[in-house]
């Protein structure tokens, strides 16, 4: 908005952006409603909040009285003063109040209308208000003073002086909004704020010296080290100032001095925070230099070395401060060689993200996605990785460090320039948000608060662009810069790596091989040389595919770096890409469907099981895309899959080909279920039901194929019908990824055939089924186990229904009765299978219940199992199947209750452990608390056992006590924390409580 050419045209209040009804009267009181005041009014209209500015001017008019004429005259003649004053009082209600509290301070704006005070001038000003003079004595130094004014008067004087200087800086920073003055660069503002913090704490220290040692010279050498944003000289208008104290000797007097300095500084200026000291808030407030060094040598975590990157001697004894920074500097540049560097850095970044409530993440410009912290974290990580070998990267400030990284070829120059621009834009927005009410905030106003957003846009120098008003410009700029940071966050790490393995741009700076391997190592790759080879192969896949890969890989590598095993994930992605080289849909799907790429990287970097299965069932990757109602991985109905497996295998007469077709669909379903599991889309019962369904379908297909082949070979009808009874987890519909299929084969003679001929033929069929399913394959194994048949492995594999009936009615052992509790028909002749189950009901649910002798025998067997079945060397506390409170414990407990009570409670006629637990609770056979403990233990152990198979790619039951595998299992199991130790502690806690329930149920007869 510009003033009209003719000053005779007096703008209305509305045209000036004034909306309050009192505006015309206020202008009249000031004498600004005349033709010769038009220029003043147009300048006022450019203030971010013209109403606030006008209201503040009226308050100044009332306070100044007769002195108003002097200010009015200056404003009419001095554009620079006008720009600074109007911008200030229309941007910050707090600083406007400060100005009104002592209206004569407008003269400070006139004095410093073209320059800001130097650091020496700031020091003289702050020390002057407390009459500080240089400290004398053996520990005197150039930054150690003694104040003559202490107590509340000192704090009041220092607070006023600090607000004066904030007012001057803010006025200079904001002036370009109103008048055409140069915009003050972000670095100048932040450095000036840091200089103010330095001299302010020098003055606070002078008061602390006078209070702590009122009559004696300071008895200690004392240095204050700035950390964080102040250490990097990139402070905000409203920030905590992080400090660390070095004191020689580190005694009670030194602690008192530090505490008093913090009290004065926090009362007068800003929060002074010493939480970054060794051991944090639990550690000693002051330490000697040697004590600091000893701590960093022995105990410090990676984040503490990252914090030291910004350490700077701030005030106090400069020699001691410099000695501190010189001593800790080597720790910073060797931090990336620590064994736990990568997981600690990744965990720290995730913890920062988790600190932001989900509803604020899109409004949080400091900690959200595409935020200031993304830039700072990325820059610091690259500094830590390469800084040991390149001293030019030893920069504390983010912008300076980013420029040095670009100069060294560690990031692309264009990427660095764009990231710097976005970072400075967000810092500008942050400063404006804080200035408004002088509050520490990093959160944008809600999207529906247009008045607040429009004020922010104007305060950030945004004007209408011909298409959007200032509010629209702000929204577009925030969105654009956040998206640019997100995109460049990945490119910052990975684009130079790709340039180092491919001729992508002859003008580009390339990482050396050593730098490239260091960078990959710090990003989570344990064999960076191999990873570089994979990158080279991927970007060299031919002109078009290589170009697509080079665009995709920065983001894909970042996502892989967040997984438990990025090395294996990258290798798997390379193999997939090479095997799918002639399938155009593969790269197109990854490029165009964002969720597909993320989900694929997550499963490839998490699961050795899926790396193999997806290689042979790549079509499943299409299901990683979103459908109308969510991920298409959930669009598949297991019942339809069951039917499809049977239909597909039925098309082939050759049993090998028939089972091969069934295996192919099983492979597809395993890949789908495992992917959905890792992505957190399926719960434990859903996974178990889906796996059990596909197992049953494949067994059915193999049986049908074997029977068809036998009939064709014999040239006559089959002499018997066959049913396959699922036992154990298969019968309970609770299979895991590593489970075998426990089954019984039952047959029934057809027509005039002899039972012996029928059994002989059925044994041939059973043998063929097991061989067909167990034939060598790259797929997860298909092992059929008949060990739960009568007489165990010494009994015949196949019996007739009448033979089973005769055996169970006369000879069944308690363990065989117990095994029948989970018997369920899964394949073959359904009528025969149902009749088998009806026969089994008489054995497993006898009238009157099983005998007490049988119960005692079950208890005895359980004690023996506990004592003898655990594998040699296994840890009984973390063995998911046979360990304390594990699957076997829960299942035996449920089955014991079924044996004792199922005859009178029909709901216990159930093969599912979880459903039986529900029935036990409903019948009040166990307290609700105990039922819940057993349920949680079963779910926890099953989830852990499944995660073990997914991570390792092979059946295993033993949780590791620590290390990379445990971390991977915790992540795949969906543990919310980055701490795998917490996952293990939870497992131990849940299973320990369940074990107590088991022991009570089994009457203390455990071994």
TrEMBL record:
Keywords on record: ATP-binding, Magnesium, Multifunctional enzyme, Nucleotide-binding, Nucleotidyltransferase, Transferase
Domain Glutamate-ammonia ligase adenylyltransferase repeated: 154-323, 599-837
All copies of domain PII-uridylyltransferase/Glutamine-synthetase adenylyltransferase, residue ranges: 347-493, 877-1000
Top-level EC class as recorded in UniProt: transferase
Gene3D superfamilies, alphabetized: Beta Polymerase, domain 2, Nucleotidyltransferases domain 2
Any one GO CC term of the record: cytosol
Domain of life: Bacteria
Adenylyl transferase: annotated span: 505-1007
Cofactor: Mg(2+)
Pfam families the record matches: GlnD_UR_UTase, GlnE
GO MF term set: [glutamate-ammonia-ligase] adenylyltransferase activity; [glutamine synthetase]-adenylyl-L-tyrosine phosphorylase activity; ATP binding; magnesium ion binding
Record region (Adenylyl removase): 1-497
InterPro entries (alphabetical): GlnE, GlnE_rpt_dom, NT_sf, PII_UdlTrfase/GS_AdlTrfase
Keyword tRNA processing: no
UniProt catalytic activity: [glutamine synthetase]-L-tyrosine + ATP = [glutamine synthetase]-O(4)-(5'-adenylyl)-L-tyrosine + diphosphate; [glutamine synthetase]-O(4)-(5'-adenylyl)-L-tyrosine + phosphate = [glutamine synthetase]-L-tyrosine + ADP
EC number of this enzyme: 2.7.7.89, 2.7.7.42
Matches recorded under SUPFAM superfamilies: Nucleotidyltransferase, Nucleotidyltransferase substrate binding subunit/domain
GO biological process, one term: regulation of glutamine family amino acid metabolic process
Its job: Involved in the regulation of glutamine synthetase GlnA, a key enzyme in the process to assimilate ammonia. When cellular nitrogen levels are high, the C-terminal adenylyl transferase (AT) inactivates GlnA by covalent transfer of an adenylyl group from ATP to specific tyrosine residue of GlnA, thus reducing its activity. Conversely, when nitrogen levels are low, the N-terminal adenylyl removase (AR) activates GlnA by removing the adenylyl group by phosphorolysis, increasing its activity.
Alphabetized PANTHER family for the sequence: BIFUNCTIONAL GLUTAMINE SYNTHETASE ADENYLYLTRANSFERASE_ADENYLYL-REMOVING ENZYME, GLUTAMINE SYNTHETASE ADENYLYLTRANSFERASE
Family assignment from sequence similarity: Belongs to the GlnE family.
Protein's name in the database: Bifunctional glutamine synthetase adenylyltransferase/adenylyl-removing enzyme
Species the sequence originates in: Rhodococcoides trifolii
Classification lineage: Bacteria, Bacillati, Actinomycetota, Actinomycetes, Mycobacteriales
């Amino acid at each position: 908005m510009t003033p009209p050419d003719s000053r005779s045209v007096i703008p209305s209040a509305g045209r000036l952006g004034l909306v309050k009804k009192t505006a015309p009267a206020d202008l009249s009181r000031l004498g600004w409603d005349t033709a010769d005041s038009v220029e003043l009014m147009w300048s006022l209209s450019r203030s971010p909040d013209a109403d606030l500015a006008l209201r503040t001017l009226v308050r100044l008019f009332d306070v100044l009285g007769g002195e108003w004429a002097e200010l009015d005259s200056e404003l009419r003649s001095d554009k620079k003063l006008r720009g600074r004053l109007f911008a200030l009082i229309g941007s910050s209600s707090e600083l406007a109040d400060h100005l009104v509290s002592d209206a004569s301070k407008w003269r400070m704006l006139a004095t410093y209308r073209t320059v800001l005070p130097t650091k020496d001038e700031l020091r003289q000003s702050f020390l002057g208000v407390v009459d500080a003079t240089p400290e004398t004595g053996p520990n005197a130094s150039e930054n150690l003073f003694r104040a003559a004014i202490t107590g509340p008067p000192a704090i009041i004087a220092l607070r006023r002086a600090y607000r004066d200087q904030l007012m001057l800086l803010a006025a200079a920073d904001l002036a370009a909004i109103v008048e055409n003055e140069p915009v003050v660069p972000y670095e100048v503002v932040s450095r000036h704020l840091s200089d103010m913090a330095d001299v302010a704490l020098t003055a606070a220290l002078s008061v602390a010296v006078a209070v702590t040692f009122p009559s004696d010279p300071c008895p200690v050498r004392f240095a204050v080290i700035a950390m964080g944003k102040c250490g990097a000289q990139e402070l905000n208008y409203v920030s905590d100032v992080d400090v660390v104290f070095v004191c020689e000797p580190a005694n009670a007097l030194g602690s008192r001095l530090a505490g008093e300095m913090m009290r004065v500084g926090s009362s007068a200026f800003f929060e002074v925070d010493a939480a970054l000291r060794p051991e944090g808030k639990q550690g000693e407030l002051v330490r000697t230099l040697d004590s600091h060094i000893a701590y960093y040598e022995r105990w410090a975590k990676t984040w503490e070395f990252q914090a030291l990157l910004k350490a700077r001697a701030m005030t106090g004894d400069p020699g001691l401060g410099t000695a501190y920074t010189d001593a800790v500097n080597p720790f910073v540049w060797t931090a990336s060689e620590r064994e736990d560097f990568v997981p600690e850095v990744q965990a720290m970044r995730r913890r920062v993200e988790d600190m932001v409530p989900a509803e604020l993440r899109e409004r949080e410009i400091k900690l959200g996605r595409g935020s200031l912290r993304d830039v700072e974290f990325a820059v610091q990580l690259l500094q830590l990785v390469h800084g040991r070998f390149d001293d030019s990267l030893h920069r504390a400030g983010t912008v300076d460090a980013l420029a040095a990284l670009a100069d060294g070829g560690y990031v692309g120059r264009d990427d660095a320039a764009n990231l710097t621009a976005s970072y400075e834009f967000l810092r500008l927005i942050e400063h404006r948000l804080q200035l408004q009410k002088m509050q520490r905030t990093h959160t944008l106003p809600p999207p529906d608060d247009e008045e607040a957003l429009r004020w922010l846009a104007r305060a950030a120098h945004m004007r209408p662009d011909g298409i959007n008003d200032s509010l629209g410009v702000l929204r577009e700029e925030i969105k654009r810069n956040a998206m640019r940071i997100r995109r460049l966050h990945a490119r910052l790490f990975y684009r130079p790596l790709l340039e180092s393995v491919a001729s992508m741009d002859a003008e580009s700076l390339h990482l050396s091989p050593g730098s490239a391997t260091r960078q990959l190592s710090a990003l989570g790759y344990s064999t960076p040389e191999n990873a570089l080879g994979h990158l080279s192969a991927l970007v060299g896949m031919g002109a078009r595919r290589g170009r697509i890969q080079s665009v995709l890989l920065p983001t894909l590598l970042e996502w892989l770096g967040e997984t438990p095993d990025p090395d294996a994930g990258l290798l798997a992605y390379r193999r997939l890409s090479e095997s799918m080289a002639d399938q155009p849909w593969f790269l197109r799907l990854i490029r165009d469907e964002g969720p597909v790429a993320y989900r694929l990287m997550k499963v490839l970097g998490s699961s050795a099981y899926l790396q193999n299965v997806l290689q042979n069932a790549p079509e499943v990757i299409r299901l990683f895309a979103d459908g109308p109602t969510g991920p298409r991985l959930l669009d598949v109905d297991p019942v339809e899959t069951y039917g499809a497996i049977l239909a597909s295998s039925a098309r082939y007469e050759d049993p090998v080909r028939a089972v091969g077709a069934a295996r192919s669909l099983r492979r597809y379903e395993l890949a789908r279920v495992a992917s959905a599991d890792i992505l957190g889309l399926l719960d434990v019962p859903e996974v178990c039901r889906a796996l059990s369904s596909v197992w049953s379908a494949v067994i059915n297909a193999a049986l049908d194929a074997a029977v068809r082949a036998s009939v064709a070979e014999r040239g006559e009808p089959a002499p018997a019908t066959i049913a396959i009874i699922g036992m154990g987890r298969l019968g309970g519909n609770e299979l895991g990824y590593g489970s075998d299929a426990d089954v019984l084969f039952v047959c029934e003679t057809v027509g005039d055939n002899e039972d012996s001929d029928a059994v002989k033929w059925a044994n041939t069929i059973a043998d063929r089924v097991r061989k067909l399913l167990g034939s060598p394959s790259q797929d997860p194994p298909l092992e059929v186990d008949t060990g739960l048949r009568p007489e165990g492995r010494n009994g015949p594999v196949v019996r007739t229904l009448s033979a089973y009936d005769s055996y169970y009615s006369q000879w069944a052992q308690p363990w065989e009765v117990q095994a029948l509790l989970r018997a369920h028909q899964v394949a073959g002749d359904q009528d025969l299978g149902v009749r088998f189950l009806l026969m089994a009901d008489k054995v497993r649910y006898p009238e009157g219940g099983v005998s007490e002798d049988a119960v005692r025998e079950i208890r005895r067997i359980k004690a023996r199992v506990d004592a003898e079945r655990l594998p040699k060397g296994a840890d009984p506390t973390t063995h998911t199947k046979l360990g304390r409170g594990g699957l076997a414990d829960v299942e035996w407990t449920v089955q014991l209750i079924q044996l004792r009570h199922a005859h009178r409670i029909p709901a216990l006629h159930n093969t599912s452990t979880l459903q039986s637990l529900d029935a036990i609770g409903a019948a009040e056979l166990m307290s609700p608390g105990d039922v819940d403990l057993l349920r949680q233990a079963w779910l926890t152990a099953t989830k852990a056992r499944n995660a073990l198979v997914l991570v390792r790619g092979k059946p295993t039951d033993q949780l590791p006590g620590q290390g990379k595998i445990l971390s991977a299992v915790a992540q795949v199991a969906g543990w919310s924390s980055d701490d795998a130790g917490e996952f293990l502690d939870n497992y131990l806690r849940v299973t320990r409580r369940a074990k107590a329930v088991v022991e009570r149920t089994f009457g203390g007869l455990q071994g």
